[in-house]
């Protein structure tokens, strides 16, 4: 019997990528693990020109069977290939038809990337333990800290009572009758997305924190464009005539993923963000959604709702010394820096607790060093979800 012919090709020009759009959409629909962050619309994130989309299309006997949607970014002089749509896209993965041939298709894709010659590092982060690359047996490094997991709610379970949130909702209702509505039409969705980003920026300012993503005009422009085009769905919570909370999310099949949740900081004591979530989940359940995904990290407010969490991991492939240094920084130094910034900017954290927090962060980084040194030996476990 003749072996199936497997070919891998790189698509980088706008015309070549556009010519693949129909097959791309069909493959996304046929990939059981697809999260919505691998849809063709995410190439909007490269329209500014700062990132260059580069797709690896794998075919078997002419049929598109696997696609790695990537982009090339320059990071302090280092050329890094990472998932298309980052940093706004929260999950990265390949798209692939189901079946036992996936490892062979991935091998062809990896060989094609190895021939590029113009990148320093392949940084495949934001990988779910139940994703395509995990199913292919790729040597992925697991996140060492549980806070990097992705909490979710199984909407098929009997709903929890959240009495403390319900009490604060009554306080919120004193500002006017609570009303949850979905964005209707392109301009309405864009306006709501602008308000969500304004709420989030004000919250960050008051918390004395920063977000490199939301401070980037190109990332903001991409979020607004995705909302306007309906790729992101929008829900708003009103108290009378006052807008109190906005959420931007991504829906695919029976799963909903909460991308940006923001609220009026002047009403923080009423928990308007929690109120929106509590009202939104039963609404989505009635619409056929079974899985409400909070996305990583596993922040406390998410865990208050969650019924489980999905393990996350990453794969770094440096091609030279510069790429190895970048991999070290991304895998080990950046998480430590985030922990340090959080500790130093938390106004309610006493100095003793702050130092302990930093010490724990350093210990996590040390553990990550050990894991990263054994990249080829770590595999995802078969259990992708953890019940809470």
TrEMBL record:
Residues 160-302 form the BioF2-like acetyltransferase domain. Pfam families: Acetyltransf_6 (PF13480). Its EC number is 2.3.1.-. Residues 371-380 have a biased composition (Polar residues). Keywords: Acyltransferase, Transferase. Residues 368-388 are annotated as: Disordered. GO terms for molecular function: acyltransferase activity. The keyword Disulfide bond does not apply. This is GNAT family N-acetyltransferase. It comes from Candidatus Rhodoblastus alkanivorans. The lineage of its organism: Bacteria, Pseudomonadati, Pseudomonadota, Alphaproteobacteria, Hyphomicrobiales.
